[in-house]
Design goal:
The protein is mainly beta. It is built from one helix and three strands. The chain has a three-stranded antiparallel beta sheet, covered by helices on one side.
Length: 79
């Protein structure tokens, strides 16, 4: 069963000339654990915020299973 699915996601911050995410599609099942690695500014946190419904994509579709809870740990959080 798909727990989280994105289809053709595009996202751009108003302050940036180029989109950060372009035509991104993914499918995660219930057992998925996701780790994102990439340089600063590559869209890792933005993608997680889209997963968590904190940001809405400019285009595309996000489908979340009922009761889905996205948890993320910020590397700069207080210990």
């Amino acid at each position: 069963m798909e727990y989280l699915r994105g289809e053709h996601i595009t996202f751009r911050y108003e302050t940036q000339p180029e989109p950060l995410l372009v035509d991104l599609s993914f499918s995660l099942d219930r057992a998925a654990r996701v780790g994102l690695i990439g340089p600063n500014g590559s869209g890792k946190t933005t993608l997680l915020r889209i997963f968590a419904d904190e940001l809405q994509p400019d285009s595309g579709l996000i489908k979340r299973a009922e009761g889905l809870r996205v948890v993320r740990f910020d590397q700069h959080r207080e210990q």
